[in-house]
Amino acid sequence: MSIDDDTQWLEWVTKQFESIAGEDKEIDLEEFKTALKVKESFFAERFFALFDSDGSGTISLDELLKALNLLIHGDETDKLRFLFQVYDVDGSGSIDPDELRTVLKSCLKESAISLPEEKLDDLTLALFESADKDNSGSITFEELREELERFPEVMENLTISAANWLKPPTAKQKSHTPRYLTPAYWHNNRSKLLFMGGYLCLNTLLFTLAALRHAPLGGWVMVAKGCGQCLNFNCTFLGVLMLRRCLTWLRATWVAKVFPLDQNVIFHQLVGYVVGALSAVHTGAHVGNFVRLTQTRDRPALWEYLFTTRPGIGWIHGSASITGIALQLLICVMLVCSSPFVRKSGHFEVFYWTHLSYISIWALLVLHGPNFWKWFVVPGFLFVVEKTIGIAVSRMEGLYIVEINLLPSKVTHLVIKRPQFFHYKPGDYVYLNIPAIAKYEWHPFTISSAPEQQDTIWLHIRSRGQWTNRLYEYFRWPEPLSQEPKRLMRNLRKQRYHKRTQEHLFRSSGSEASVATSKDETIELTSYKATRYPDCEPADVTVTRRDGEESLQAREVSAKLSENHRVCNIKCYIDGPYGTPTRRIFTSEHAVLVGAGIGITPFASILQSIMYRYRMRKPNNPRCGYSWAESLKDDEMKLRKVDFIWINRDQKSFEWFVSLLTKLELDQADEAPEGRFLEMHMYMTSALSKNDMKAIGLQMALDLLAKKEKKDSITGLRTRTQPGRPDWSKVFHKMAEENKGKVQVFFCGSPALAKVVKAHCEHFNFRFFKEHF
């Protein structure tokens, strides 16, 4: 620090101290804990004891400045000495195994990591045995220094991150050139910018031509007619942007390289706001013209112009004013209910149902304006065809949810029986309807299974709104606990069903299954017809033959495999599939997939498909290089490298797809690390970073144990889970240096993180694609 910086820092610390300290100008342990905001009191107590140099039980400003001066201005030896004293709980001058275990246990709690006691013992022994060079049974300061030197990234910025309240805020250095004027931004957004420019020019041209044609009628009419012509185009264009099947087809053509088809939802929202503004100006201009007309003799009153057909304005029985007012109200309601604060506040149903008023709006527009039907006839025909196909496809074949799995963080994993003619691409999404949850509601979800998985379709659904919460609770509590009599009645009916089935199953001439002939064998029968037993629930029947004796058991259609895992048979409908930007992945050379939380869903399907294609393309015979299964053309998959980055807040979230990721790692088990086609990067944001004094020991122990056991202690994967958030500059710099081809980044996650990743992509001149639907 310079002298000026040092002075500023002292002023800041003094100010912060005075805001925390009481009237006695001292900080006690409880105030210190509150200020540090630590989850585990161990570190607060250890730091407090070391800061309290006179042992008075409180910390003065002088004591605080002295300690912080050592940590911020001191050299590596000073910082290491402080760290050693934190670990040396009894002050003996060395660290024994029990002290190290206590520290690591507190580290786990600080980082929100849950591990079994046995794993904690393994971590303690891994770090202790590595640091105890002389096998003396304790770790000295020199041994700790030597061990830390093996981890240079730890020593790079050793500090106490929890004491950020004592660091003055740093002013962000803003670039002199606005982001939107940089060459990188124009390069990465050229198709969007060209499209926006063309859209603006077209609206300007339409407005100008319509206004000039009505110039003799005055300024109010010119503005109204200009806005009206723009509304003809924009109200039609709104529907064009939602022709999902057409857009999915166009993504496979040259059109996708010219127009920003992947951002159709963003443009739909933008055009919606434009329609709202144009309709307000259009209505206001007409009202202004009516006021002008009422000032002339023998003219109707203003209210007659607005609410009656007497003035004869409009091409169908003079209904332009009445239909115009109805349109203005509907558009306002739709705009308000489409706002983010409605959609993202758990009231998606409000958005959904009010959005269906587009049918009424289009009908009123046909009645309102004489030229709208000319704009609407072709897009309207395509829209009707799409909707008809969607309804036909969704109702063509009965689909059933055959299995559900409730995952951490309120994620519902649905397994749906795949229709025979349902074909999709990795990363596609469908609209799902479950009548048992909501009869008329359809919600979009990304398919998380690969197309190569023939029998079933997977959906992973995070509970965020009313419908998704109802879905989770429906499977979490399939039987209301308050209805005890009904539960007993069901049990009685099941018992009767068992008895009657045993009596009738093998008496019936047309038996619905053949019995196993082997001695100890269990076979599955087709679903026994509930119509033969109307008082019984549908069930599957299992016949077991043991030692020549046959026994029969009935299994519920909704069978509980475990606490959160059930086999079921619930009716559902799907509409789709529809394409997304991720379809570009297979034509990329170096693809970087960034998923945040449940944002991994589209990439789960893609990763499975990528590895399937990779295995198909890889030669099977290492001697001659001949492949018996090589059936992929080069234009189907140009990928040379895939980097998968998954960022999760907590440890449990990794359980969603850990089995899938384990399988992907096994597919590359024989490859050298530098030659692997797929490289995975895991980040856990709740874990403290490696240079935090409260996490140094834990991160070192996790590294050592991962090398020893060849797997990560947090996820069980071979890939080491990194604490904190990615350093995007370092991550993307490393990828750029690999020279595996043009890098394209595909992101699915929160909008805030998307902005950060996109900004770094522009800096490295990487193409950026974000999931939208």
TrEMBL record:
<dbReference type="InterPro" id="IPR000778">
    <property type="entry name" value="Cyt_b245_heavy_chain"/>
</dbReference>
<dbReference type="Pfam" id="PF08030">
    <property type="entry name" value="NAD_binding_6"/>
</dbReference>
<feature type="domain" description="FAD-binding FR-type">
    <location>
        <begin position="394"/>
        <end position="503"/>
    </location>
</feature>
<feature type="domain" description="EF-hand">
    <location>
        <begin position="75"/>
        <end position="110"/>
    </location>
</feature>
<dbReference type="InterPro" id="IPR018247">
    <property type="entry name" value="EF_Hand_1_Ca_BS"/>
</dbReference>
<dbReference type="InterPro" id="IPR013130">
    <property type="entry name" value="Fe3_Rdtase_TM_dom"/>
</dbReference>
<dbReference type="Pfam" id="PF13405">
    <property type="entry name" value="EF-hand_6"/>
</dbReference>
<dbReference type="InterPro" id="IPR017938">
    <property type="entry name" value="Riboflavin_synthase-like_b-brl"/>
</dbReference>
<feature type="transmembrane region" description="Helical">
    <location>
        <begin position="591"/>
        <end position="614"/>
    </location>
</feature>
<keyword id="KW-0812">Transmembrane</keyword>
<keyword id="KW-0521">NADP</keyword>
<dbReference type="InterPro" id="IPR050369">
    <property type="entry name" value="RBOH/FRE"/>
</dbReference>
<dbReference type="InterPro" id="IPR017927">
    <property type="entry name" value="FAD-bd_FR_type"/>
</dbReference>
<dbReference type="Pfam" id="PF01794">
    <property type="entry name" value="Ferric_reduct"/>
</dbReference>
<keyword id="KW-0479">Metal-binding</keyword>
<dbReference type="InterPro" id="IPR039261">
    <property type="entry name" value="FNR_nucleotide-bd"/>
</dbReference>
<dbReference type="InterPro" id="IPR013121">
    <property type="entry name" value="Fe_red_NAD-bd_6"/>
</dbReference>
<feature type="domain" description="EF-hand">
    <location>
        <begin position="119"/>
        <end position="154"/>
    </location>
</feature>
<feature type="transmembrane region" description="Helical">
    <location>
        <begin position="193"/>
        <end position="212"/>
    </location>
</feature>
<dbReference type="Pfam" id="PF08022">
    <property type="entry name" value="FAD_binding_8"/>
</dbReference>
<feature type="transmembrane region" description="Helical">
    <location>
        <begin position="315"/>
        <end position="338"/>
    </location>
</feature>
<dbReference type="GO" id="GO:0005509">
    <property type="term" value="F:calcium ion binding"/>
</dbReference>
<dbReference type="GO" id="GO:0016175">
    <property type="term" value="F:superoxide-generating NAD(P)H oxidase activity"/>
</dbReference>
<dbReference type="InterPro" id="IPR013112">
    <property type="entry name" value="FAD-bd_8"/>
</dbReference>
<dbReference type="GO" id="GO:0006952">
    <property type="term" value="P:defense response"/>
</dbReference>
<keyword id="KW-0106">Calcium</keyword>
<dbReference type="GO" id="GO:0042554">
    <property type="term" value="P:superoxide anion generation"/>
</dbReference>
<keyword id="KW-0274">FAD</keyword>
<keyword id="KW-0285">Flavoprotein</keyword>
<feature type="transmembrane region" description="Helical">
    <location>
        <begin position="350"/>
        <end position="367"/>
    </location>
</feature>
<protein>
    <submittedName>
        <fullName>DNA excision repair protein ERCC-6-like</fullName>
    </submittedName>
</protein>
<dbReference type="Pfam" id="PF13499">
    <property type="entry name" value="EF-hand_7"/>
</dbReference>
<dbReference type="InterPro" id="IPR011992">
    <property type="entry name" value="EF-hand-dom_pair"/>
</dbReference>
<feature type="domain" description="EF-hand">
    <location>
        <begin position="39"/>
        <end position="74"/>
    </location>
</feature>
<dbReference type="GO" id="GO:0043020">
    <property type="term" value="C:NADPH oxidase complex"/>
</dbReference>
<keyword id="KW-0472">Membrane</keyword>
<keyword id="KW-1133">Transmembrane helix</keyword>
<dbReference type="InterPro" id="IPR002048">
    <property type="entry name" value="EF_hand_dom"/>
</dbReference>
<keyword id="KW-0560">Oxidoreductase</keyword>
